[in-house]
Amino acid sequence: MNTPPFRSHLMQQFYSAAKNQSRPPLVLASTFRSKTGNDEGSTRRVHHHRASTTSSPMLSSLNARDVSHSLSSSSRSFREASSEAKSASNNDSTQQHHVYEPSISAQSLQQMISSRRTVSNFLHHPPTSLPVEGGIQCQQILSNAVRRAVECASTAPNHKMSEPTTFHRILSPSAASERLLDISYEVTYQRLLLNKLSGVEACRNEAMRKREKWSKIPAFIVATVGGMEDQYNEEEEQSPYAELPLNAPHTIQQLEDYASSCASIQNLLLSLHSEGIASKWATGTIIRTHALRNLIGCKKDDMVVGLIMVGWTKQVPRMPRRRRELEGDVLKDVNI
Length: 336
Fold this sequence. Notes:
Layout: H1 9-19, H2 40-55, H3 57-97, H4 104-114, H5 136-153, E1 165-171, H6 175-195, H7 200-214, E2 219-225, H8 252-274, E3 278-282, H9 290-296, E4 303-311
Antiparallel strand pairs: 1-2, 2-4, 3-4
Helix pairs in contact: 2-3, 5-8, 6-7
């Protein structure tokens, strides 16, 4: 009778079941002869081992404990190996299917840039209630915001650190802002008369409407770039409100400085927008007049790049419908 070399009833059942397998567990290879082994020497060694284990209860018990420990260790090793393989498989799958996403801060910056809009209707005070006294606090808020915006504007790229852009701040109400409103009125009135778009009274009414609209703007910034061609001819006498001929950049350096000034203005607009302050970059007739140049103290080779209106608004305009598609039109891949 082939008696299993284990006292434990559970191990005897495991032994009997493993004996009938074509490939029994390796931990029992020394305990019984494999069905695939046919040499007599192996059979004798197995019988000798079986006799020795059955002759000593202590050895039989030790063998059972060793086998149980081996099974437990093998089971743990298998589970650990399976877990590692599964983890590696998941990592490979994640790497294969992972799509890069920008950080939260990057997405916030991109959203802030994309959400900026040009505003035409301004308020002297924020839509939310603030403890203000005669508008002084709001004026101080804007003054500080403009200073921070100009600090950001000065970081725009400029060739050989030329730093060509200068910003002139006008806060309202002030003597400078009142003078700017008068200039706006006169420039509009004379332009309408010159183009004969309507009668004298209608021209005055339209000019006054524009002046009143500008009177609601809390602050103005005039951006100028130096080192340009002379912007006017001193020998020619012109009305201070007449439009001067455009004298564009002529040299590479002048063109680079003008481009740098435009980049500075964009930085300024974005900085204001980040603080919830609306703006408008205007380039109308008024920026090419002696009256405005005299107001801010321009030199002869200073070119006015733009008049920026700054303040608050009740509602930000919607995103206009783009005329061009991004992929394939605005953005084109160069393939050779």
